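Exam revision sheet. Question 4 asks you to relate a sequence to its structure. Input first:
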Amino acid sequence: MRKYFLKAGERFGFLTVVNDVIINGNIFIKCQCDCGNEAIVLQSHLIHNQTKSCGCWRRRGGVLNPGWKHGKVKHPLYPLWRRIIDRCYCKQSNRYPDYGGRGIGVYKDWRKSPILFIEYIEKLPKSDKADLTIDRIDNNKDYEPGNLRWADKTIQSVNKRISKTNTSGYCGVCRSNKKNKQWYANIRLYGKNIFLGLYYTPEQAVIARNKYIINNDLEKFGIHVQSI
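Answer key, structure tokens:
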């Protein structure tokens, strides 16, 4: 007879219970790790604190101090710190290629202490807004003091780095088609693409996009004019 029945949502270390699975008569628990990976763990290992993560903690090779006594594990911003650390330092993370894989890191004091990271971002403007998330102002720089802000999804989508398929070299500027060889400028705001015209060179398209940002006072929302 089963002695324990774990409920979906229960947490054990960095693992959150999803549901149980019976394999060859043994009780396993399907869990979601804070790093984003799934793990199938023996129920007894969870209950007796023998398994705390999907294995990502060990794979970091001692880069981080686990800090079990920092008291922030249940803080609502603690999972954010974990995700940032994983995407920058855990090569097994599916986000690693876009972060740590291209040289993005975390400020050394924050890397070792979720307390310092949480205290910093809680003091940033708009930290009390429920619909905002943490965004890097310059997405080619690290998670570091002076480069973080609370932003909505619109600002973050505009602030994305240039796509690998973008041949213009500028955000929001793409070739119209192969035949006419013109370039179009656009900007995406609040779920809508705003077409800003066709131009003979990508530089002309950038100038048009910059003028739109300035004329509509979008800089106050964190949308930056691009240098050309």
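Marking note for examiners. DSSP finds seven helices and nine strands in the chain.
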